[in-house]
């Protein structure tokens, strides 16, 4: 009976008995070509998956600038959705804070695990396409190479090269995480140092009015210029760190009542009140602090796809009401601070400063689930993610309409 190329043995069975055995020409001589195309396609898909994962790790851990990465963003969004389900069952802010404190660290540890799985699957496709393995053997060979276990020996020199490259990629991804964690915690420590010091000056939760009142009580209003300069440096640091190390924005403070967002809001509002309402000479350091602050918050907001108006009008609506402003003025006057006589003009000047950072401040407070603080998180939209696309316009573009320095 012929068994050469183009034939197959067909057996017909009925009731457990073989009725007929006969050769039959293959129905499709193109099957080897089709199998070759499938192998080539799968090899290309596997290589693309590996390359995409490597680019994701480079954009996330190596590239020293804020570049969005879809894979990293997708991992954080899925994790955020799971944590949102957990926080919905929380009965108090303390419970929500404890849950959200785990969000960024846990997700950050999941990221390299997802990358390793994607590399494993990508190389599994390449090993299968190479033709020496079935699916199960390809998965085993890829896992042995990625984790440098070495129990699956290569069957050929090209396969050995694949094993070496996958082992190198696995070690590189682990090394990137090891190098990334000290960097992110060093940036976190620098950020939290100023946030902790603000509690001494502005109370807890931080308040712009309380900050000005305390400086007045201790007779240190003349030292505010030095503080504005220090906070200007702080804003420059968070702009760099919270875009290049994007997970840092979701790392919470050691104390549940503290937040980098509410600290930023208190300092910016204090500077705005100092320039618009308190009867003191114009302080250029306060104006530069506000400019550094809204530029930093806008850059971070752009990274997280939060929409804002880059050229607001000085009379645009803000989240702080006139009644709240009047109440703040009354508290400042009761504490003994000299205020400008024209309160209407002071209100217009305050709006002209606040309008530059109002939207991004409130949105970032909602994004990070910041604790309650006046004029920031107490009016946030509490959205888990932004809904608008990036504007693509420069956040520091000059505008003749808004109050800028």
Unreliable segments (pLDDT under 50, ≥5 consecutive)? 1-15, 17-29, 381-405
Strand arrangement in the largest pleated sheet: 1-2
Q: How many H/I helices?
A: 13
What's the number of domains? Answer: 2
Total E-strand runs: 2
Distance between the termini: 94 Å
Helix content: 55-70%
Shape: elongated
In sequence order, what are the helices and strands, one letter per element?
EEHHHHHHHHHHHHH
Residue-averaged pLDDT: 84
Which structural class fits the helix and strand makeup? mainly alpha
Biggest sheet character:
2 strands, antiparallel
Measured by DSSP, the beta-strand proportion falls in under 5%
Radius of gyration: 30 Å
Characterize the structure shown.
By secondary structure, this protein is mainly α. The protein has two domains: 31-177, no CATH class; 203-379, no CATH class. It contains 13 helices and two strands. The chain has helices at residues 31-62, 70-88, 93-101, 103-130, 135-146, 157-202, 208-217, 224-244, 260-276, 284-303, 322-334, 343-354, 358-367, and strands at 7-14, 17-25. A hairpin with a 2-residue loop joins strand 1 and strand 2 (17-25). The longest helix is centred in the middle third of the chain and has 46 residues, at 157-202. The model is unreliable at 1-15, 17-29 and 381-405 (pLDDT under 50).
What are the defining features of this structure?
405 residues, mainly alpha, 2 strands, two-stranded antiparallel ribbon, 13 helices, disordered N terminus, 61% helix, disordered C terminus, 2 domains, elongated, single chain
């Amino acid at each position: 009976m012929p068994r050469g190329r183009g034939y197959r043995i067909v057996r017909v069975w009925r009731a457990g008995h073989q009725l007929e055995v006969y050769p039959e020409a293959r129905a499709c001589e193109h099957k080897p070509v089709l199998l070759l195309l499938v192998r080539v396609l799968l090899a290309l898909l596997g290589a693309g998956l590996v390359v995409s994962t490597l680019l994701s790790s480079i954009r996330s851990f190596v590239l020293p600038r804020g570049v969005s990465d879809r894979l990293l963003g997708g991992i954080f969004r899925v994790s955020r959705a799971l944590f949102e389900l957990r926080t919905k069952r929380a009965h108090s802010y303390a419970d929500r804070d404890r849950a959200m404190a785990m969000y960024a660290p846990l997700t950050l540890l999941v990221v390299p695990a997802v990358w390793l799985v994607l590399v494993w699957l990508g190389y599994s496709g390449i090993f299968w396409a190479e033709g020496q393995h079935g699916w199960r053997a390809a998965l085993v060979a890829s896992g042995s190479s990625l984790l440098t276990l070495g129990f699956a020996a290569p069957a050929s020199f090209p396969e050995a090269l694949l094993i070496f490259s996958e082992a190198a990629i696995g070690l590189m991804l682990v090394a990137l995480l090891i190098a990334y964690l000290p960097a992110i915690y060093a940036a976190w420590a620098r950020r939290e140092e100023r946030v902790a010091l603000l509690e001494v000056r502005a109370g807890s939760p931080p308040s712009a009015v309380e900050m000005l009142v305390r400086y007045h009580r201790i007779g240190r209003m003349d030292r505010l210029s030095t503080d504005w300069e220090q906070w200007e440096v702080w804003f420059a640091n968070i702009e760099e760190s919270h875009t290049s190390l994007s997970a840092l924005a979701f790392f919470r403070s050691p104390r549940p009542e503290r937040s980098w967002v509410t600290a930023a809001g208190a300092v910016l509002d204090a500077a705005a009140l100092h320039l618009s309402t308190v009867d003191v000479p114009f302080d250029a350091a306060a104006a530069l602090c506000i400019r550094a602050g809204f530029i930093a918050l806008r850059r971070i907001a752009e990274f997280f796809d939060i929409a804002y108006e880059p050229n607001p009008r000085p009379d645009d609506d803000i989240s702080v009401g006139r009644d709240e402003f009047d109440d703040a003025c009354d508290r400042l006057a009761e504490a003994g601070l000299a205020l400008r006589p024209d309160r209407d003009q002071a209100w217009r000047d305050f709006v002209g400063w606040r309008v530059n950072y109002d939207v991004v401040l409130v949105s970032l407070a909602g994004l990070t689930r910041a604790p309650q603080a006046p004029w920031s998180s107490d009016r946030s939209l509490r959205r888990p993610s932004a809904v608008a696309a990036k504007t693509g316009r420069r956040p520091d573009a000059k505008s003749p309409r808004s109050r800028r320095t």
